[in-house]
Structure formats: structure tokens, C-alpha cells
Specification:
The protein has 100 residues and is an all-alpha fold. Helices cover 74% and strands 0% of the residues. The N and C termini lie far apart (45 Å).
Length: 100
């Protein structure tokens, strides 16, 4: 087995352990999101606070998005951003090389 293949396997195992270990070490812990934590802090600081903005999509569908849809969009956003940045970088480099 090549050195690169061993390194990749070791890194995959380490990544899996980093993702799995907290569930066993922190049994019974709640893994809530930052939106929930932020809402709780705002409620503690200003009990009568009313949000001044309602998201457009929530207004259109008449309620909150299902959790699965929110999770999916949050997971896809970095991929879209990465794709955009790579595409923009490639276009920039292509424009620079054709200008010469």
C-alpha cells in the first residue's frame, strides 16, 4: 500500500472518530443550533421582544420551513459557495491569460 493511500485512510478514520466520539462521550447532551441558543438569549434579555422581520419564504408558505429543508440548505450552501469561488477564480485566471 502506498504512503498516500495510508495517509488518506488514517485521515478518514480520524475524521470519523471526531464526528462519532462526541455522541458517546457526551451522552444525553443536546446538540442544538445557534439559532435556538440565540433566540433563548434574546428572550431572557427582552421578554417582550417581537421580531421586526419575517423571512420571505416563511411568509410565502405560511410557516417555518421543515427542519430537513433547513438542514439541507445549510449543508449545500458551502458547496455552492465553493463552486462559485472556484468558477470565479478560473474565469479570472482565464481572462488574465488571454489578455497577454
Amino acid at each position: 500500500m502506498s504512503k498516500n493511500k495510508k495517509t488518506v485512510i488514517i485521515l478518514l478514520i480520524v475524521a470519523a472518530l471526531i464526528a462519532i466520539i462526541p455522541f458517546f462521550v457526551l451522552r444525553g447532551a443536546e446538540f442544538g443550533g445557534s439559532d435556538d441558543a440565540g433566540s433563548q438569549v434574546v428572550e431572557e434579555m427582552s421578554p417582550g421582544y417581537e421580531p421586526w422581520f419575517t423571512p420571505v419564504l416563511e411568509s410565502a408558505i405560511g410557516g417555518e420551513l421543515p427542519g430537513e429543508i433547513e438542514s439541507f440548505s445549510s449543508a449545500c450552501r458551502p458547496a455552492w459557495e465553493w463552486g462559485f469561488s472556484v468558477s470565479s477564480s478560473a474565469d479570472f485566471m482565464n481572462a488574465r491569460s488571454s489578455a497577454k
